[in-house]
């Protein structure tokens, strides 16, 4: 478990005194001999207006044994660290807190050692459900789309007046008796509202379920069914603002404490420290009411400091803890708590009220002892429920019996999580630290979890009460983690030598070390991303531009035929690599496969001469060593990562391979002898978060485009909302109309056009003239529509085999015939049209 940060809480209201001790001073207390303590009927050396409050609930006050035995020194700042001189480092029992609120080392809080009262399962396993285009998308291994659920696919009911002892199994049987098979996973029993009845929420992925159940329940039955809005399935992921967590707090009982010192100097110093907040009790700021002297000159502790608003659970040790040993009081006397209540009852009441609003994924009771306010927290299973709970329960009164009522303060917490490679985090941490004070000013906190728990990556979490403030901090953090593209004026800095791990690459690594930055090569976009302090990144750009200009190498590309690819895969490329070194690389992602030579003309000719010997089969690589060769570049892997199928990749090759997109329904291991879908856990471990989320998004896009008869995108430009195509309803009827929740455009799910208020036939008649003109314009421009999904295609050059980017259909450009594979299309072109090109055939 990881320790979560503690957000600020509203200050507790002052507790007014309810009773007074006798005005007469206690002569035994003045001599330091009073044995009655707080039960004494006489004043212990203080004026009447400074006496402790009496208990409003006459119960036995909390004893020192109730306070627990935990070490609370971490709540106090180390004064040696504050002055820059603590020699104990992380072993110091006191807090090493910087001025900006971060722990030792910067503003981002490294969470390595959980505390018992701050354990929270924040990094729960990813459920691999993402919200994309208004749909809840379930992904499986290989980033394959397993299921797409839309809001319209669900319906829900609330069943009321159930017996108070009802459970999920009982509700499921009740529904079964009515003819509805519902899993207990889809049923949530609400806490009993009274002693005889309770309710249950049921959500089913069936749009007609709620209406059918409502009709099936007899109106005369005691059990009632209400149709309610069906929430979408829970979804997770990084770099999105979510609202699932609530923080709940209410007043704890307080007490007054008297400190007796031998000298006025000691008493004055303690008063000043408590008044300024330098000294705290149980991490709570208390009030100090000045120094008072005893009128009895014989009193060995004549100087008294009275503290109010002290947590009732505080012990004498808690009072003494912030005071240096040489300045501690000779005597500490604890007053009675202002009231007493059962903490277990309070926790149960709050949790029960939350469960009435939504299912809890996690809950932490308020601790028995602590600061001025009891603090509990929970996380709801579904998105957005926390804000509803805060709106309805903030200010609710906890009825704790015997006339005691406490106000519940509830805050909905917005959060966003990020995942970043450790080498990137190290160089951007100083940049993040600069932002932390401004985030803290808006009550937004950043936590950085221990890298050892996240497979070489850092998980960062932003949390705050304001959705706007968290969103602003998220945007700033995203910008830092995205880095900046290296530019030379208006030109992107790039040279082919950057793409290979040769001498120029080694110079990039030296530059990283010297400047304290990270340089990431984006081979797909031919650019460099710089991460680190802005001034260092600015310093690096002219150096990179100079390095690119000094490079005289040229990129030569050699496309491989099937037999050449087999030769290269079986060891021929290794022979070429031994002859040319890092100048030669293999691109197994492209179609066709390629060998890229980054060097001189002589290097290029040598590579061609070696390819001419493909009739000589190289020595095959032994199976036992197969996993030691990267299946992308066919060389020993650099910065290796190993997948669960035991194949080892270069880190750069793996990222490039995954970013190239899906060529089938899932991402398979690149090894020709494997073709196993890459597990999602492996993709998460080895890919940056933006790359992983883009891979999932691209997989979903491909999934939707390959199913034009089932799903379509909203017709508004730049709107990515998805709707389900209707196949059975009456064309033009109201049931066929989809109103996009993002752009509010209404689309007919039957004909996929917008015609509110008219049938499909009426709309077709109106638009026919416009369509004719559009088709004529397309004909003049040489634009044709995909015969399968109607995506418009323009062919500029090349052969007459075209692949639709929408549905991946293989199309003959001459006759618009579609085929299941490129080979089928090529065979058709040769037989029906005399070849794959127009040239030479009079076409």
UniProtKB/TrEMBL annotation:
Recorded coiled-coil stretches: none
Domain RING-type: 626-839, 630-669
One of the record's GO cellular component terms: ubiquitin ligase complex
SUPFAM superfamilies named in the record: CCCH zinc finger, RING/U-box
GO MF term (any one): ubiquitin protein ligase activity
Matching Pfam families: IBR, IBR_1, zf-C3HC4, zf-CCCH_2, zf-CCCH_4
Name of the protein: RING-type E3 ubiquitin transferase
Source organism of this protein record: Cercophora newfieldiana
């Amino acid at each position: 478990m990881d320790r979560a940060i503690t957000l600020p809480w509203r200050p507790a209201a002052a507790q007014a005194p309810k009773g007074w001790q006798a005005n007469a001073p206690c002569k035994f207390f003045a001599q330091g001999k009073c044995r009655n303590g707080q039960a004494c009927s006489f004043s212990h050396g203080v004026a009447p207006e400074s006496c402790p409050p009496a208990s409003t609930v006459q119960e036995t006050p909390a004893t020192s044994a109730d306070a627990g035995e935990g070490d609370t020194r971490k709540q106090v700042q180390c004064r040696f660290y504050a002055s820059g001189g603590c020699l104990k480092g992380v072993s110091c029992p006191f807090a090493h807190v910087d001025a900006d609120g971060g722990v030792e080392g910067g503003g981002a809080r490294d969470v390595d050692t959980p505390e018992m009262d701050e354990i929270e399962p924040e990094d729960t396993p990813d459920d691999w459900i993402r919200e994309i285009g208004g749909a809840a998308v379930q992904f499986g291994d290989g980033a394959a789309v397993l299921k797409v659920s839309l809001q319209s696919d669900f319906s829900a009911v609330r069943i009321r007046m159930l017996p108070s002892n009802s459970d999920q199994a009982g509700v499921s049987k009740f529904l079964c008796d009515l003819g509805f098979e519902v899993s207990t996973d889809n049923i949530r029993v609400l806490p009993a509202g009274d002693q005889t009845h309770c309710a249950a929420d049921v959500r089913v992925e069936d749009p007609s379920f709620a209406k059918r159940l409502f009709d099936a329940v007899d109106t005369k039955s005691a059990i009632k069914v209400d149709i309610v809005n069906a929430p979408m399935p829970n979804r997770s992921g990084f770099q999105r603002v979510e609202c699932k967590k609530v923080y709940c707090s209410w007043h704890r009982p307080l007490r007054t404490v008297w400190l007796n010192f031998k000298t006025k100097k000691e008493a004055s110093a303690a008063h000043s420290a408590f008044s300024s907040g330098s000294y705290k009790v149980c991490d709570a700021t208390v009030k100090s009411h000045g120094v008072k002297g005893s009128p009895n000159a014989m009193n060995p502790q004549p100087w008294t400091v009275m503290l109010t608003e002290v947590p009732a659970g505080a012990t004498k040790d808690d009072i003494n803890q912030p005071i240096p040993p040489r300045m501690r009081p000779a005597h500490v006397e604890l007053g009675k708590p202002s009231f007493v209540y059962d903490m277990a009852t309070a926790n149960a009441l709050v949790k029960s009220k939350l469960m009435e609003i939504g299912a809890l994924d996690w809950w932490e009771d308020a601790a028995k002892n602590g600061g001025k306010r009891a603090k509990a927290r929970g996380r709801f299973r579904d998105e957005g429920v926390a804000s509803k709970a805060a709106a309805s329960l903030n200010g609710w009164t906890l009825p704790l019996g015997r006339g005691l009522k406490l106000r519940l303060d509830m805050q909905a917490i917005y959060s966003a999580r990020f995942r970043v490679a450790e080498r990137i985090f190290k160089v951007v941490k100083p940049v993040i630290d600069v932002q932390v004070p401004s985030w803290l000013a808006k009550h937004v906190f950043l936590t950085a979890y221990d890298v050892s728990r996240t497979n070489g990556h850092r998980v960062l979490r932003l949390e705050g009460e304001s959705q706007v403030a968290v969103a602003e901090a998220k945007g700033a953090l995203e910008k830092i983690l995205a880095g900046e593209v290296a530019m030379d004026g208006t030109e992107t800095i790039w040279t082919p030598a950057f793409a290979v791990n040769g001498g120029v690459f080694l110079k990039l690594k030296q530059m990283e070390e010297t400047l304290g930055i990270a340089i990431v090569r984006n081979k797909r976009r031919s650019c460099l991303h710089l991460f680190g302090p802005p001034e260092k990144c600015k310093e690096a750009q002219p150096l990179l531009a100079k390095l690119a200009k000094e490079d005289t190498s040229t990129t030569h590309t050699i496309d491989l035929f099937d037999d050449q690819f087999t030769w290269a895969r079986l060891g021929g490329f290794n022979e070429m690599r031994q002859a040319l070194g890092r100048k030669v690389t293999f691109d197994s992602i492209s179609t066709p496969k390629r060998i890229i030579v980054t060097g001189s003309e002589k290097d290029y000719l040598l590579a061609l001469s070696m390819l001419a010997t493909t009739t000589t089969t190289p020595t095959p690589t032994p199976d036992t060593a197969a996993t030691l060769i990267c299946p992308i570049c066919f060389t020993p892997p650099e910065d290796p990562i190993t997948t669960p199928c035991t194949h080892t990749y270069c880190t750069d090759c793996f990222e490039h391979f995954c970013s190239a997109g899906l060529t089938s329904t899932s991402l398979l291991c690149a090894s020709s002898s494997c073709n196993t879908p890459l597990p999602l856990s492996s993709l998460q471990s080895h890919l940056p978060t933006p790359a992983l989320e883009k891979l999932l998004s691209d997989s979903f896009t491909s999934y939707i485009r390959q199913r034009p008869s089932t799903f379509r995108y909203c017709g508004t430009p730049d709107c990515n909302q998805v709707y389900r195509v209707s196949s059975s309803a009456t064309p033009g009827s109201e049931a066929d109309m989809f109103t996009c929740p993002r752009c509010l455009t209404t689309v007919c799910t039957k004909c996929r056009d917008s015609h509110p208020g008219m049938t499909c036939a009426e709309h077709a008649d109106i638009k026919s003239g416009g369509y004719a003109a559009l088709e004529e314009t397309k004909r003049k421009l040489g634009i044709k529509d995909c015969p399968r999904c109607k995506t418009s295609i323009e062919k500029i050059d090349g052969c007459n085999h075209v692949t639709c980017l929408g549905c991946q259909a293989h199309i003959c450009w001459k006759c618009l015939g579609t085929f299941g594979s490129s080979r089928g299309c090529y065979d058709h072109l040769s037989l029906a049209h005399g070849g794959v090109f127009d040239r030479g055939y009079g076409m």
